[in-house]
Design a protein that fits this description.
The protein is built from ten helices and 21 strands. By secondary structure, the chain is an alpha+beta fold. Helix 1 packs across helix 2, helix 5 packs parallel to helix 6 and helix 7 runs parallel beside helix 8.
Length: 595
């Protein structure tokens, strides 16, 4: 008998040729979507469904039915496929409810080609959903795993496909529904190529980027983790994708643990209530025996879930220990050796580290929080009070500005010389201490702007810059910018916002927040939202447009898969370290040498 999975739990796949058995009370459509390393499906030709049931490595049924068999040969999948999403959908029928909550819970069972059961999952808890992701088969360190998902979509198949990133999802969903109707004529299987196999529709000159294989561990143990074993064209891209993979794996593993604990607790409550209300259990010691048996079942289930979680956590910890030292400067912690002999890069990075994320169940394991560059949103370092932070206002503002300075220093250091610049607005001059690191090294475009006049002048200059770039881009003449135009991206640090801002300045700041990123101007606000309370809802769109960071640990980030509350810790140098000063001095020296 295979392992009974709960929502979010994963399990190794010891075989690569599989059958997935689907059992439902009513006929349902079954399909499989082939996704990249992020699980995204970019093309309708990457979906095996009733109208196109066979793809390389995957075959699904040709009509809606109550019983399905989905066949998978993981070794035959294209190299670009890192995730197979098995999905179910209710076909629309007149006079019937097209939702999973109106029927018994479907069941998915994964077996080997020889019929040996590997894992099974019952999709409970569905109600108004008309489509559901049942399982995921995903590649991890050259091995494959199955994950129980059970994510339903009240918007039906169209909403599910849109969530997978598929363009024109509604049109594709309608075509899949029509092809899967039991009465619909079934198309012939795909034509075979000259050798009798499926036609290879890949570009003849497109090759997969090389990725290092994981080192094989001792017999019976998982392979030793290798830095950069994810997909990607460069080591930087592979490390970026690997960090995201670790983030998702920890998310799913923690979801499985919490789901198992919740299920065990709910079942214990039901069984204890049943023991108390059953008159037969009141005779002799039957009630005590029933309660003890219920608690034993609870402890056994929680113990199994905890053991599985600790196994996954140990593997992720081992992976983190080899990945962290291999990260480039843009991704690395400030205390890692890569900063000790930092050299200016020839190309900008694809992402930057803002800090670390962790969950309470796995507090020692930190996952780097990486965001893509160029920044699509402005940043806001919240200098207001957070739960558990009992420091005074002055100390919070100082720490928040230190976070902003450290981030600005990192951005300056990881961009090529002359391709990134930093400006500062400090209306009251209250940030002279933390900002001294930037001013002493000469890495700012000029001294910090003070007072209302300095705020107005800086914002007016950047607004003109954004307008000029936008006009050049919209006119298709980006090369027609004036001679001597500095094309470097700009980061504007605004300290103690909204001090020194009038209505005109606020309008310009909102314009920069909305239009600046596309024109190479980015915002970094250091502010306590309570200070802007007098403006009421006027500034709500501004706050919503910014990514909030905190100078002290705070659990305000949610992952995109399950929605766990992750605790964020900013990327700061060790206390007393001069690494930021050294790095900024290297940036300044490189600028002087390049002139």
């Amino acid at each position: 008998m295979g392992t009974e999975l709960v929502r979010g739990q994963n399990h190794p796949l010891p075989r690569t040729r599989l059958e997935i058995l689907i059992s439902a009370e009513v006929p349902v459509l079954a399909a499989a979507a082939l996704g990249d390393e992020r699980g995204l499906v970019r093309d309708a030709h990457r979906i095996a469904h009733a109208g196109a049931p066979v793809l390389p490595g995957i075959e699904v049924p040709r009509a809606a039915a109550a019983e399905h068999r989905v066949f998978a040969d993981l070794n035959a999948l294209p190299g670009t496929v890192h995730r197979v999403t098995v999905l179910l959908a209710m076909p629309e029928r007149a006079g019937t409810e097209s939702r999973f909550g109106a029927t018994a819970a479907p069941r998915a069972t994964v077996t080997g080609a020889d019929g040996t059961e590997i894992a099974r999952f019952t999709l409970t808890g569905l109600d108004a959903e008309a489509a559901v992701v049942a399982l995921e088969l995903y590649r991890r360190q050259d091995d494959w795993k199955v994950r129980a998902v059970g994510q339903g979509y009240a918007g039906g198949l169209a909403a599910l496909l849109a969530d997978l990133g598929l363009p024109r999802a509604r049109e594709v969903a309608e075509a899949m529904g029509e092809a899967g109707h039991p009465a619909a004529p079934q198309p012939p299987p795909p034509e075979a190529g000259p050798t009798g196999g499926p036609v290879d529709q890949s570009h003849p000159r497109r090759h997969e980027p090389p990725a290092p294989a994981a080192t094989t561990g001792p017999a019976g143990e998982p392979p030793r983790p290798v830095a950069g074993d994810a997909a990607g064209w460069s080591m930087e891209e592979r490390l970026y994708n690997q960090v995201w993979g670790m983030f998702e794996d920890l998310t799913r593993a923690t979801a499985a643990l919490r789901s198992a604990a919740d299920f065990a607790a709910a079942r214990l409550d039901r069984e204890l209530d049943a023991a108390l209300t059953d008159p037969r259990a009141r005779i002799g010691g039957a009630a005590d025996a029933a309660r003890e048996a219920a608690r034993a079942r609870h402890d056994e289930l929680v113990g199994r879930a905890q053991a599985a979680y600790e196994r996954d956590l140990a593997q992720l910890t081992a992976e983190s220990e080899v990945v962290e030292p291999a990260l480039p400067s843009a991704y690395a912690r400030w205390d890692y050796p890569v900063w000790h002999d930092h050299r200016m890069p020839a190309d900008p990075p694809q992402a930057v580290r803002l800090g670390d994320l962790h969950l309470p169940e796995s507090a020692p394991l930190r996952i780097p929080m990486l965001v893509r560059l160029p920044l699509e949103r402005g940043l806001w370092v919240d200098s207001g009070a957070t739960p558990g932070d009992f420091g005074d206002s002055v100390e919070r503002r100082r720490r928040a500005l230190e976070v902003a300075v450290a981030l600005a220093a990192r951005l300056l250091a990881v961009h090529p010389v002359g391709e990134f610049a930093v400006q500062v607005v400090d209306p009251a001059g209250a940030g002279a201490g933390p900002l001294g690191t930037l001013t002493r090294t000469g890495t700012l475009t000029g001294p910090p702007a003070h007072g209302a006049a300095g705020v107005a002048q800086t914002l007016e200059s950047l607004t003109r810059r954004v307008d000029l770039v936008r006009m050049a881009i919209s006119g298709g003449a980006a090369e027609a910018l004036p001679d001597g135009f500095d094309s470097a991206r700009r980061l504007l640090i605004v300290n103690d916002f909204p001090q020194g801002f009038d209505d005109r300045a606020l309008t310009r700041l909102r314009f920069l927040a909305d239009e600046g990123p596309a024109a190479g101007v980015h915002l970094l606000l250091v502010a306590d939202r309570a200070d802007a309370g007098a403006y009421g809802p006027l500034l709500d769109p501004l706050w919503r447009s910014l990514m909030r960071l905190t100078p002290s640990p705070d659990d305000h980030f949610a992952d995109p898969w399950v929605g766990h509350a992750w605790t964020f810790e900013p990327a700061l140098p060790p206390h007393g370290s001069a690494v930021v000063q050294q790095v900024l001095s290297a940036v300044s020296a490189a600028r002087i040498k390049g002139k």
